[in-house]
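Continuing the batch. This is chain 6 of the set; chains 1 through 5 are on the previous pages. Same settings as before, nothing changed between runs. Recording input and output for traceability.
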Amino acid sequence: MEWVRRAAEVRPSERQLALQEMEFYTFIHFTVNTYTDSEWGTGTEDPSIFNPARFDANQWVASCLDAGAKGLVLTCKHHDGFCLWPSRYTEHSVKNSPWKDGMGDIVREVAEACRKGGVKFGIYLSPWDRHEPTYGDSPAYNAYFIHQLRELLTGYGDIFAVWFDGACGEGPNGKRQEYDWPAYYAVIRELQPNAVISVCGPDIRWCGNEAGICRPSEWSVVPASLASNEKIQAKSQQEDSREFAKRYDSQDRDLGSREIIKHERELIWYPAEVNTSIRPGWFYHASEDHQVKSLKELLHIYYGSVGGNATFLLNIPPDRRGLIHENDRQRLKELGDVIRRTFEHNLAQGASAVASETRSGSSPDYMLDGNRDTCWAPEDGTEAASIEIDLHREMTFDHIVLQEYRYGQRIERFELEYEDAGEWSPLYKGTVIGYKKICQFDAITSRRVRLRIKESRWCPSIAAFEAYIS
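Output for chain 6:
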């Protein structure tokens, strides 16, 4: 079927791959809301309330590293319009706060701390601005917003992600702002070509909720109608883009099965990001100091996102001191310790493999060599196959990690079996693999494991098979 092959050949961009391989990164929500005990500011806040007297960007980065996160996205401006950098285009910023006598720049200190700590730096810039008087005068505000984008994209080094949400309200003139998304995207591509544009953008999509709930089958190859305004508007010459955009929604349970894609004329690579907060709120509230998510909850989200072909964006809101609270820090370290301990030693290192079929130039041992650029694959058109892995001695394990070749997502259904007293016994059943699938099960002891690919698109290609004990 030609449409199956077409779906199998959809590929990610290098920037999309780079983000997926980061796996886990953090959000920092920090602004005047931290001092008004609110989630959404009004835009009327006095900058004099912003004074994080013990602000320490290095402590923020250390908290990320404790958790094992590889990036940090900072809310440089939230809906209240207050800027954490001394923007030339507004007075509603840190330059009119008592913090460092108006001479400070939160964005700069965080960006520098990230570089020092080896953590990638990203920015969130809210399109909705409840302070800016030109909001609602669409051309004037779009120019204002682009000026601020340019400041952030040129003054703070490499940016790995620009995170947009679609929040939009009436301006002070009673008019609703029309965002010029294509112009915003063009500025980002010009100034930070390696940065992904997330959520309201063409590179990474929202998983559909803020609770950390993950789909059991998360596809990266999805209908083009799921993409941001950039993709939708590009099709307006051919069809009614509003009708096209309504056909699928990021909250739909099924976004990429055969039933979905076989009717589609255009498919794109558009992987999911799972975003949630470590607390009930996105900004710090002292009343939530004892409502930090449990280690069990965070691990559940980690396995569902990173282990389910998505990325994990965890919000950790600093308190009024300008520090990550002690309770949050403790939980982040607990999370990082478990992840590091569980995945420290790959028990399949040094194993060997035999496949039911192998394409010329490939090898099943490529699944075991630790190189994401090599993979095992059968001949084109072979959609079902099996591989037996020999660990060379009996080992006890309770995790198996599978990864497809990085430039595609093809496997639709698979099973794992283990050899027990000379017989094959069922171990795990799954659907998609994609970038990474972490299979958890009760610990078993065996020398041999069999991976049976039951369904795939055109032909499967697997780059990694790993085994671990927690």
